[in-house]
Design brief:
Shape of chain A: globular
Strand order of the largest sheet of chain A: 1-2
CATH topology of chain B: Rossmann fold
Number of helices of chain A: 13
CATH topology of the largest domain in chain A: MetI-like fold
Structural class of chain B: alpha/beta
CATH architecture of chain B: 3-Layer(aba) Sandwich
Distance between the termini of chain B: 38 Å
Strand content of chain A: under 5%
Number of domains of chain A: 2
Number of strands of chain A: 2
CATH class of the largest domain in chain A: Mainly Alpha
Strand content of chain B: 25-35%
Oligomer: heterodimer
Order of helices and strands of chain A: HHHEEHHHHHHHHHH
Structural class of chain A: mainly alpha
Helix content of chain A: over 70%
Helix content of chain B: 25-40%
Strand order of the largest sheet of chain B: 6-7-8-3-9-10
CATH superfamily of the largest domain in chain A: MetI-like
Radius of gyration of chain A: 26 Å
CATH architecture of the largest domain in chain A: Orthogonal Bundle
Distance between the termini of chain A: 60 Å
Number of strands of chain B: 10
């Protein structure tokens, strides 16, 4: 028997018997799967909007944007500014730690490290991202705060500096890893061009590679800051729940996220103003991250070096 | 460091017994060759013969490839470029390089040309403008871009980009320009413009050019080196290489029997 004809016949038989059902159903199934996260997002946003709306109907805007936050007192007031203040300060400190260290690590890894060093260092750095945030919170409270107290004797046991720094450490891998990817995506030809003109490796990194990768780098900053704004556990543990409006970073401040933790684990009964305030805070958090993303898109478009 | 006083004034590069390995692969085998001042030296040979490797060794760009080892000497104006005390940045400032594919920076035309002068500490605005104009005129690009110096270099055509890269290289006033198949990514018209340019630059510069086109070598060069499997087979006046080669392998290559 001629083996070749045989195989051809078998293939043709199989192909004509092959059910088309899988091919018809599979794309639809995949679409449902893909829609899942989109639908969830829409659901979350709608819930936030509706319940936040109830809050804004009960509390005048002038009170919402005040510095007076006392949700559990007999005459409760719901000024959000202390929470925004706490969030901004912790995130700012985190970025002050994460941006320089993360960027320096990225420049080192992408421009200077040998292949072998990079192979060891990058996974180790990314390991930092795998530490649970509760561990970071504990680390901030029981290690960093006591350490800082030696430098700043007036430091409160709950304060803003320590969780800020630890949050910064937590997001270093994000900045470093994403910035490094952006810098690695810059074509080697460009590096060679700069080296060929007698640039040092550092000049190549700073004057050619960094500007060419800036949009990816800025994107990594924004993802990092969004992460910092949304981070909960570290600030809940180490920054406490002081609702006074102040700029003293050596003392406790509550962030938006830790306010939500305090209330959901506490005694806000469903339907009370305090309960709805959670949604309002959630909505404002959401708006914050949204604005961050828009800002990032604007910045990266404006400074993008097209190649 | 050895000095060879006999022919020092005219010799830019004196390559002596150069060997190069990529890991275990012996890519250049005992290459001896002199590159002469104000000459165009063409380096030809089939793919993988080591011609690009050779030219990238001249400004030590080859060191960016992991696992490269060399032995032998390359004297640049009498000084060994592998000398520990030699700063590679200084060498590369004097030895310009133009690459196979145009590789402008994703910056304006202005910033591209003045990148070199700026990193080497030239700050005077007026002087920078002079450098900009001279370099772009020398690379025959000035008329096409003088009204859009702030535009991104990536808006230029491939041929214009390559001339911009040549201008960028001229802006640091090198003494020799190494060109690694500078026209291989360009169309015939852009190619002929680059060739004209090379002919004009010869007055003021020394040029070493790698090319896979024998016709190009014949058109523009004074001397031609033929590489095969990492060996320098023959190096002579271009006319002689193309009319009366001494080595059978060269003849096979230039007559098109092989390669």
């Amino acid at each position: 028997m001629d083996g070749r004809t045989d195989v051809r016949k078998m293939i043709q038989d199989n192909i004509s018997h092959k059910a088309n059902r899988v091919d018809a159903v599979m794309p639809k199934f995949l679409l449902v799967m893909a829609s899942m996260s989109v639908l969830t997002t829409v659901g979350i946003v709608l819930t936030l909007f509706f319940d936040a709306f109830k809050f804004f109907r009960q509390v005048p805007l002038s009170e919402v944007f005040s510095t007076d936050l006392a949700p559990l007192s007999a005459d409760p007031s719901f000024g959000i500014l202390p929470l925004i203040n706490g969030t901004i300060f912790t995130s700012l400190i985190a970025m002050m730690v994460a941006v320089p260290i993360g960027l320096a690590a990225a420049v080192y890894l992408s421009q200077f490290a040998s292949f072998n060093k990079r192979k060891v260092l990058k996974p180790m750095l990314e390991l930092l991202a795998g530490v649970p945030t509760i561990v970071y919170g504990f680390f901030a409270y029981s290690f960093v705060t006591p350490l800082l107290m030696r430098l700043i004797p007036s430091l409160g046991s709950k304060n803003v500096i320590s969780p800020g720094i630890v949050m910064g450490i937590m997001i270093i891998p994000m900045v470093a890893s994403l910035s490094e990817d952006a810098m690695n995506a810059v074509p080697d030809a460009m590096r060679e061009g700069a080296l060929g003109l007698g640039s040092t490796r550092f000049e190549v990194a700073v004057k050619v590679v960094l500007p060419a990768a800036i949009s990816g780098i800025v994107a990594s900053f924004v993802l990092a800051i969004s992460r910092a704004i949304g981070e909960t556990m570290i600030v809940t543990i180490a920054s406490g729940s002081n609702k006074n409006f102040s700029f003293d970073i050596t003392q406790s401040m509550q962030t938006m996220t830790s306010y939500i933790v305090e209330f959901t684990s506490g005694d806000a009964g469903a339907g009370t103003t305090g309960y709805y305030s959670l949604y309002a805070v959630g909505l404002i958090l959401f708006v914050f991250t949204l604005l961050m993303n828009l800002l990032a898109q604007y910045i990266s478009k404006k400074y993008r070096e097209v190649y | 460091m050895r000095q060879d006083t006999n022919n020092l004034p005219d010799v830019v590069y004196d390559v002596r017994g150069l060997n190069l390995w990529y890991g275990e692969t012996h890519a250049l085998k005992d290459v001896n060759l002199q590159i002469l001042k104000n000459h165009v030296t063409a380096i030809i040979g089939p793919s993988g013969c080591g011609k690009s490797t050779f030219i990238k060794t001249l400004n030590r760009m080859i060191e960016n490839v992991p696992g490269v080892r060399t032995s032998g000497e390359i004297l640049y104006h009498g000084r060994d470029i592998f000398d520990k005390d030699l700063r590679v940045e200084e060498l590369r400032t004097k030895v310009g390089m133009v690459f196979q594919k145009p590789n402008p920076f994703p910056k304006s035309i202005y910033e591209n040309v003045l990148y070199g002068p700026k990193i080497h500490g030239i700050k005077n605005k007026q002087l920078l403008m002079e450098i900009l104009e001279t370099s772009l005129k020398a690379s025959a690009l000035w008329d096409e871009v003088k009204d859009r110096l702030d535009d991104n270099a990536y808006g230029l055509s491939g041929g214009q980009q390559q001339r911009l890269c040549i201008a960028r290289c001229l802006a640091v006033q090198p003494d020799i320009i190494l060109m690694d198949e500078p026209t291989s990514a360009l169309d015939p018209i852009a190619t002929s413009r680059i060739e004209e340019l090379i002919n004009r630059l010869k007055k003021d510069y020394t040029i070493a050019i790698v090319t896979h086109s024998m016709q190009q070598a014949a058109r523009i060069s004074d001397r031609t080196a033929y590489f095969l499997l990492g060996e320098l087979v023959e190096y002579d006046y271009t006319e002689r290489i193309f009319s009366n080669p001494r080595d059978q392998r060269t003849e096979d290559y230039i007559t098109g029997r092989f390669g």
